[in-house]
Backbone:
C-alpha cells in the first residue's frame, strides 16, 4: 500500500468535497418544506413573501452542484491513478514472470485479468470508497433532520434497516462465488477468441470454422448461464428489500397526517420526511449495490492479485552482482554442473548435465526431437532455473548475476521468430533501443538482411505486421539474427535458427555466424551434422542426458549415436545423386 | 503506425450512423417480445408512480386540512371520516408501492436477460464472421484490436439494448402523465414546468459535442493498451531475452497516462452535464414555490397541490436526468457500436461465388493457369507471383524450391484459396476453385505449416482436430502408422497431455509431429507441406519418411522446402525465383539442365 501514499492529498481533497456535497443534498428539500409550512400557515392572511425561500433553494442547488462537479472529476482522476498503477504492476508482473509460469497460462486469460478485472476494481474504488462516505453523510444528515422534526419520523424511516442488513449479509456470501464463476467463464470465452485469431490459418486449413464457432458458442452459453443465474439471485434480493422499504412511505404519511390534523406538524414537515425517504432509501440500496460491486471487484481482485502475488520464480536477488567479464573479451565461460530441470517435479526434462564451454568455443547440441535440446540452452539466460545443479557464467552462479545484465550479455536466435509490430529498425534495435543507425545497418548487413530490407517499401522504417506476416520465414529469421548480433553478446545461442531457411541462405547465415561467432561463446542447437561438424564440442542429448560428448571426429570414430546420425543423414544425400 | 492513427482520428470524429443502428438492431429483433414486455410494464409502473403524489394531495386537501380545522390541540380526537379517508389512502399507497417493487424486479430480469442474450448472439455472429474473413484480414489487423471488439465493445453494447429503450419510455411517459396531472391542477403551473424543461435538455445535449469524441478516445486508448499487452504476453520470451522489460514498461506507462487523460476528460464532460441538470431541478423547485405564493393568493391552486407539484417535478426531472445518463450510455455505446459494425462490415476478400457447388471428391489434378498474385490491390506494387502456370497430376509429388521470399508459400496459399489471385485461374480436376465452396475445398486439403499451431486441449483433441468423429483407437493407430506414437507416449500424460498455448512442456519438434498426425487423420486429398519438416530433426525425419510416403500415396502433394534433401523424391520439382517458376522437372532433368537448381544442388553438396 506504500506506493499509494502520494495519492493521499488527492484522496483527502476528494473526500472533503464528497462530504460537503453530500451534506448539501438535504438542504433544497428542507428549504422547500419550510416554504410549504410557511404557505400553509400564512395563506389567506395577506401578501405572502416567499422570496427568501426561493433564493435559499436556488442557492443550495447551485452550491451542491458545483461540489458535485468537483467530486466527479476528482474521483475519476483518483480511481484512474490507482488502477493505472495496478495495470502497470500487472504488466510488470506479466513481463517478469518466468517462462515456466507463462507455459502454464494462456494469453487470453492473462489479458482478461489485466483489463476486465482491473476495470471492475476501478469501478469498485469509484463507487465504494466515496460511495460509502457519501452514503454515511447523507444518511446521517437526513436522520438528524428527521429527528429535529419528529423522532417518530426517524424511527419509521430507519425501520427497514435491520431487515435490509440481514438480507444483504445472508445473500451476500453467495454472490461472490457466482460472479467469480461468471468471470472465469468469460476468461474461457476470451481464450477461444484469442486462439482463433492467432491460429486463423490452421482453423481454415482444417475447415473447422463451424466447429470453432460451436465451441465458442458453447463457452458463451456457459458464461451467459452463470451470469444470468447471478443476476437472478441479485434481483430476488433486490425485490425483497424493496418490498421492505415500500411500507415506509405510507406509514410516514399515516403518522404525519394524524400529527398534522392535531397541529403538531405542518404539511411541509411531512413533505420533508417524504422527500428525505428517497435519499435514505437510495443510500440503503446503495449498500447492497456496493456489496454486489464489492463481490465483482473482489472476484476480479482475486484474479488480479493471483498474478501480482505470484512471486516471479526467476529474478535478480538483492545481492546480485554485475555480469563478470573475462579479461581478454573472448566471450564467456559457461559451465553446467550436475544440472537437472523439469516442468513437473517427477518428469525431468534435463537430468544431471555437466559440461564446460570455454570462452570463445562453439558448442553444438544435437539429439532427437524431444531430447531436451531447447530446454538445455534456455537454462543459460535463466528462462528457467535448474531444479538441481548449477549453471556458472565465468565461474559465477548465474543466479548471482543481475538478470538484466546476464540477458543482455546473451544473444538468442529463437526457433520460432517473433517480431513486434514496429519498424524493421525498431525490431533490430529491440535489445538496444539507443543503437545508432550505423550499428543497426552493420548488424543487418552481418545477418545478410540489409539487401532485402532496402527492397521493402519504406526500408528500415517498414512496419512489420503483428506476427511478421508480411515477411517470409527466412526474412523474419534474418531480422531476428540482426537483433541478436546488434547486442554484441558474449554468448550467442542459435536454437535451430537456420532450420527454416533455404540451403543458400543457410550457407550465408552459417558463414555470417562464423564471422560473428568470433570472440564469443556460441551454442548451436541443430539436427543437421553439417551445421555442427565445425563445433569445438558436440553434446549429444538423449532423454535429457548427455549421451556423448566430443568433437566431430572423436564422436564419429566412437561409432555411437552420433555416428549413426551422420550415416543416416549421409545416406539421405547419397540417395539424391 | 501513422495510418492506423489517422483512421482512429477520423473514426473519433464520425457520428453514429443510422447504418450502425440498423446493424445492431438486427440482433435485438429476435428478442423484441422480451424487450417490448418490460417497456409496457414500465408504462404501467410510471402510471402507478404518478398516482402517489395525487393521493397525498387528496389526503391534504380533503382530509388533513378540513379535519385540522375541527380538531383542537394535540390530544383532540380525529373524526371518523378523516380516519377512514386517510386509512384508505394509505392502504392504496401500500398496494401501489408493493406492486411497483414486484413489477420492477420482473421487468429488470426480463430486460437484462434479453440484453445479455442479444449481445451474446452478436458476439457469436462476430466470431463466425471472423472465421469467414480471409487471411489478409489477419495479416493486417492487430490481434488485440480484433479481440477488444468482440470482447469489450460488444459488452459495452448491452446498455444500448436494455437501459436506453427503458429510460426512453420511462422519460417520455412520465412527462406525459405528470403533465396531465399538473394540467388538472392548474394549466399555468403546467406551462411553467414546460417552459423550464428545455433548459435541462439543452444542458444535456450541449455536452454531446464534447462527449462523443472523448468517449471514443477512451475506448481507443483501452484498445491500444490491450494490443500492447497481448503482444508482450505472446512475445514474452523475446522480451525477456533482450531484457526489455523496463523499456516496455515505460511505453506502457505512456499509454496508461494517455488513458488517464482521456478518462479524466470524460469525467469532466460528465461532471458538467449532470450537475447542470440538477441545478435546473433546484431552480424549477424554487420557481414552483414562487408561483405557489402567487397562485394561492388568487385561488388557482389548493394547498395540497403545492407539495404534489414539488413531488411531480422530482418525477420528471429524475427521468430527465436519466436522459442525460442514458445519453451518456448511448455515447459510449455508440462508439463501441461503430467499432463493432466496422468489423461486421468487413467483407471477406475471398468469398464463395453465388450458387457455389460442393467440390466433388478430389482426384488431385491441380492446374495453375497464368496466375498473377499480390497481397494488396495497389496498382503500382510488384507482383508476388507472376504468370505462374503448372500442371500437377493426381497423386504427384510436387516440390517447390527456391530462395527465401521467392513466393513458394504464396503459391501453396492459393491452392486452398486462402487468397484470391488477381489474374489467371486455378483448377482442381478441371473445376475452377472459385466455383466451389471454400468449406468443401478445405475439407479435402491437409496443410502442415512451419509454425505449428496447437489448440488448448489435450494432444488427443488436437489429433482429432480435422475430423472430430475419429475414435481414440483410430487416432492412436494413425500416430503409430506415422511413427509419432513413441514421441507422444513420452509426453507427461501421453495422449492426454494438456497442450497449453505456448506449451513449454512440448517442444517444437514434438508439436510438429502432432501436426503431422493431425493431417494424416484428416485424410486429405491434396496435401501441402509448407516447410513442415524443417523443425523435425533428421533422425525423426528419417523415422517418419516411410510414413510420410504412406501419407503422400494417392494424394497430390505439394512440398515447400528450402532443403533439397526433402525434395529429391518429388516427381516434379519447380524452382521458384522472384515470383516465377524458372525451372521444372525431375531431379535428374534439372541437374542436366545446369541451371539454378544445379547451382543450388552444388551449394548443397558442398555442405556435406
Residues:
Amino acid at each position: 500500500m506504500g506506493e499509494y501514499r502520494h495519492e493521499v492529498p488527492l484522496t483527502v481533497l476528494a473526500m472533503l468535497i464528497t462530504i460537503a456535497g453530500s451534506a448539501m443534498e438535504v438542504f433544497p428539500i428542507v428549504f422547500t418544506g419550510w416554504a410549504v409550512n410557511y404557505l400553509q400557515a400564512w395563506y389567506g392572511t395577506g401578501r405572502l413573501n416567499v422570496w427568501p425561500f426561493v433564493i435559499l433553494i436556488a442557492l443550495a442547488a447551485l452550491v451542491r452542484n458545483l461540489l458535485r462537479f468537483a467530486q466527479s472529476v476528482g474521483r475519476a482522476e483518483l480511481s484512474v491513478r490507482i488502477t493505472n498503477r495496478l495495470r502497470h504492476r500487472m504488466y510488470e508482473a506479466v513481463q517478469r514472470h518466468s517462462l515456466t509460469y507463462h507455459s502454464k497460462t494462456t494469453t487470453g486469460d492473462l489479458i482478461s485479468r489485466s483489463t476486465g478485472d482491473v476495470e471492475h476494481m476501478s469501478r469498485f474504488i469509484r463507487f465504494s470508497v466515496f460511495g460509502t462516505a457519501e452514503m454515511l453523510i447523507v444518511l446521517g444528515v437526513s436522520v438528524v433532520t428527521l429527528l429535529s422534526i419528529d423522532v417518530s419520523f426517524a424511527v419509521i424511516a430507519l425501520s427497514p434497516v435491520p431487515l435490509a442488513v440481514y438480507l444483504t449479509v445472508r445473500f451476500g456470501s453467495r454472490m461472490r462465488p457466482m460472479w467469480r464463476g461468471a468471470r472465469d467463464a468469460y476468461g474461457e470465452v476470451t481464450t477461444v477468441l484469442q486462439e482463433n485469431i492467432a491460429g486463423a490459418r490452421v482453423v481454415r486449413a482444417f475447415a473447422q470454422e463451424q466447429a470453432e464457432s460451436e465451441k465458442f458458442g458453447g463457452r458463451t452459453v456457459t458464461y451467459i448461464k452463470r451470469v444470468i443465474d447471478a443476476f437472478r439471485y441479485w434481483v430476488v434480493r433486490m425485490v425483497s428489500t424493496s418490498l421492505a422499504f415500500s411500507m415506509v412511505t405510507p406509514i410516514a404519511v399515516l403518522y404525519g397526517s394524524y400529527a398534522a390534523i392535531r397541529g403538531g406538524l405542518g404539511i411541509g414537515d411531512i413533505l420533508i420526511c417524504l422527500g428525505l425517504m428517497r435519499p435514505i432509501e437510495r443510500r440503503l440500496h446503495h449498500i447492497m449495490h456496493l456489496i454486489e460491486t464489492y463481490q465483482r471487484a473482489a472476484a476480479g481482485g482475486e484474479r488480479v492479485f493471483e498474478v501480482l502475488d505470484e512471486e516471479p520464480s526467476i529474478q535478480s536477488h538483492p545481492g546480485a552482482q554485475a555480469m563478470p567479464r573475462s579479461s581478454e573479451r573472448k566471450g564467456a565461460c559457461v559451465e553446467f554442473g550436475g544440472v537437472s530441470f523439469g516442468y513437473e517435479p517427477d518428469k525431468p526434462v534435463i537430468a544431471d548435465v555437466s559440461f564446460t564451454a570455454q570462452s570463445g568455443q562453439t558448442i553444438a547440441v544435437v539429439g532427437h526431437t524431444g531430447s531436451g535440446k531447447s530446454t538445455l540452452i534456455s537454462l543459460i539466460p535463466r528462462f528457467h532455473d535448474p531444479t538441481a545443479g548449477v549453471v556458472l557464467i565465468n565461474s559465477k552462479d548465474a543466479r548471482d548475476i543481475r538478470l538484466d545484465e546476464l540477458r543482455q550479455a546473451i544473444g538468442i536466435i529463437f526457433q520460432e521468430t517473433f517480431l513486434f509490430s514496429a519498424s524493421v529498425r525498431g525490431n533490430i534495435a529491440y535489445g538496444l533501443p539507443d543503437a545508432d543507425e550505423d550499428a543497426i545497418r552493420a548488424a543487418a548487413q552481418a545477418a545478410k538482411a540489409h539487401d532485402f530490407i532496402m527492397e521493402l517499401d519504406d526500408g528500415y522504417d517498414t512496419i512489420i505486421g503483428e506476427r511478421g506476416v508480411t515477411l517470409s520465414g527466412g526474412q523474419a529469421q534474418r531480422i531476428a539474427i540482426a537483433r541478436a548480433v546488434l547486442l554484441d553478446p558474449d554468448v550467442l545461442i542459435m536454437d535451430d535458427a537456420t532450420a527454416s531457411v533455404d540451403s543458400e541462405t543457410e550457407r550465408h547465415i552459417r558463414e555470417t555466424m562464423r564471422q560473428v561467432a568470433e570472440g564469443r561463446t556460441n551454442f548451436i542447437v541443430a539436427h543437421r551434422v553439417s551445421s555442427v561438424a565445425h563445433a569445438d564440442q558436440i553434446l549429444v542429448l538423449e532423454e535429457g542426458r548427455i549421451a556423448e560428448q566430443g568433437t566431430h571426429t572423436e564422436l564419429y570414430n566412437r561409432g555411437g549415436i552420433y555416428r549413426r546420425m551422420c550415416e543416416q543423414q549421409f545416406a539421405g544425400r547419397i540417395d539424391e545423386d | 503506425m501513422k495510418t492506423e492513427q489517422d483512421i482512429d482520428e477520423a473514426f473519433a470524429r464520425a457520428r453514429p450512423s443510422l447504418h450502425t443502428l440498423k446493424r445492431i438492431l438486427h440482433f435485438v429483433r429476435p428478442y423484441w417480445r422480451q424487450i417490448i414486455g418490460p417497456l409496457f410494464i414500465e408504462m404501467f409502473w410510471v402510471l402507478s408512480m404518478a398516482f402517489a403524489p395525487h393521493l397525498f394531495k387528496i389526503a391534504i386537501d380533503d382530509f388533513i386540512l378540513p379535519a385540522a380545522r375541527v380538531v383542537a390541540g394535540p390530544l383532540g380526537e380525529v373524526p371518523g371520516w378523516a380516519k377512514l379517508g386517510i386509512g384508505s389512502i394509505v392502504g392504496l399507497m401500500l398496494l401501489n408501492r408493493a406492486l411497483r417493487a414486484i413489477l420492477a424486479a420482473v421487468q429488470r430480469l426480463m430486460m437484462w436477460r434479453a440484453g445479455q442474450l442479444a449481445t451474446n448472439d452478436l458476439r457469436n455472429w462476430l466470431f463466425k464472421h471472423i472465421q469467414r474473413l480471409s487471411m489478409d484480414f489477419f495479416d493486417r489487423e492487430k490481434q488485440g484490436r480484433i479481440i477488444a471488439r468482440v470482447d469489450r465493445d460488444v459488452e459495452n453494447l448491452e446498455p444500448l439494448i436494455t437501459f436506453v429503450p427503458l429510460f426512453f419510455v420511462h422519460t417520455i411517459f412520465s412527462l406525459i402523465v405528470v403533465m396531465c396531472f399538473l394540467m388538472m391542477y392548474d394549466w399555468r403551473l403546467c406551462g411553467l414546468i414546460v417552459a423550464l424543461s428545455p433548459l435541462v435538455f439543452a444542458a444535456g445535449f450541449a455536452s454531446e459535442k464534447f462527449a462523443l469524441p472523448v468517449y471514443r478516445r477512451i475506448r481507443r486508448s483501452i484498445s491500444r493498451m490491450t494490443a500492447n499487452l497481448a503482444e508482450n504476453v505472446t512475445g514474452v520470451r523475446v522480451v525477456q531475452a533482450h531484457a526489455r522489460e523496463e523499456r516496455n514498461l515505460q511505453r506502457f506507462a505512456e499509454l496508461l497516462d494517455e488513458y488517464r487523460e482521456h478518462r479524466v476528460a470524460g469525467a469532466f464532460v460528465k461532471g458538467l452535464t449532470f450537475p447542470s441538470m440538477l441545478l435546473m431541478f433546484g431552480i424549477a423547485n424554487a420557481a414552483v414555490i414562487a408561483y405557489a405564493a402567487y397562485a394561492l393568493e388568487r385561488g388557482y391552486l389548493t394547498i395540497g397541490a403545492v407539495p404534489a407539484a414539488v413531488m411531480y417535478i422530482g418525477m420528471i426531472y429524475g427521468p430527465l436526468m436519466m436522459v442525460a445518463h442514458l445519453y451518456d450510455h448511448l455515447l459510449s455505446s455508440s462508439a463501441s457500436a461503430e467499432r463493432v459494425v466496422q468489423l461486421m462490415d468487413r467483407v471477406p476478400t475471398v468469398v464463395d461465388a453465388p450458387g457455389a457447388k460442393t467440390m466433388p471428391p478430389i482426384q488431385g489434378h491441380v492446374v495453375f493457369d497464368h496466375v498473377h498474385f499480390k497481397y494488396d490491390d495497389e496498382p503500382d506494387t510488384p507482383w508476388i507471383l507472376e504468370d505462374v502456370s503448372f500442371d500437377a497430376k493426381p497423386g504427384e509429388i510436387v516440390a517447390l524450391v527456391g530462395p527465401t521470399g521467392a513466393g513458394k508459400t504464396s503459391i501453396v496459399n492459393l491452392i486452398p484459396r486462402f487468397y484470391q489471385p488477381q489474374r489467371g485461374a486455378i483448377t482442381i480436376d478441371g473445376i475452377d476453385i472459385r466455383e466451389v465452396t471454400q468449406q468443401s475445398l478445405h475439407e479435402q486439403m491437409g496443410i502442415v505449416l512451419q509454425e505449428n499451431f496447437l489448440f488448448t486441449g489435450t494432444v488427443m483433441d488436437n489429433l482429432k482436430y480435422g475430423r472430430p468423429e475419429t475414435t481414440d483407437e483410430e487416432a492412436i493407430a494413425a500416430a503409430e502408422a506415422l511413427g509419432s506414437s513413441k514421441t507422444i507416449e513420452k509426453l507427461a500424460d501421453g495422449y492426454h497431455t494438456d497442450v497449453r498455448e505456448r506449451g513449454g512442456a512440448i517442444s517444437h519438434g514434438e508439436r510438429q509431429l502432432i501436426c503431422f498426425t493431425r493431417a494424416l487423420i484428416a485424410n486429405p486429398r491434396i496435401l501441402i507441406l509448407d516447410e513442415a519438416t524443417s523443425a523435425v530433426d533428421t533422425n525423426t525425419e528419417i523415422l517418419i519418411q516411410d510414413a510420410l510416403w504412406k501419407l503422400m500415396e494417392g494424394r497430390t502433394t505439394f512440398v515447400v522446402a528450402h532443403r533439397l534433401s526433402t525434395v529429391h523424391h518429388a516427381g516434379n520439382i519447380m524452382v521458384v525465383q522472384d515470383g516465377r517458376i524458372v525451372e521444372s522437372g525431375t531431379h535428374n532433368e534439372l541437374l542436366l539442365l545446369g541451371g539454378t537448381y544445379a547451382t543450388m544442388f552444388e551449394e548443397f553438396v558442398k555442405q556435406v
Remarks:
- The domain at 322-402+535-577 of chain A is CATH 3.40.50.300 (Rossmann fold).
- Confidence is low (pLDDT under 50) at residues 573-577 of chain A.
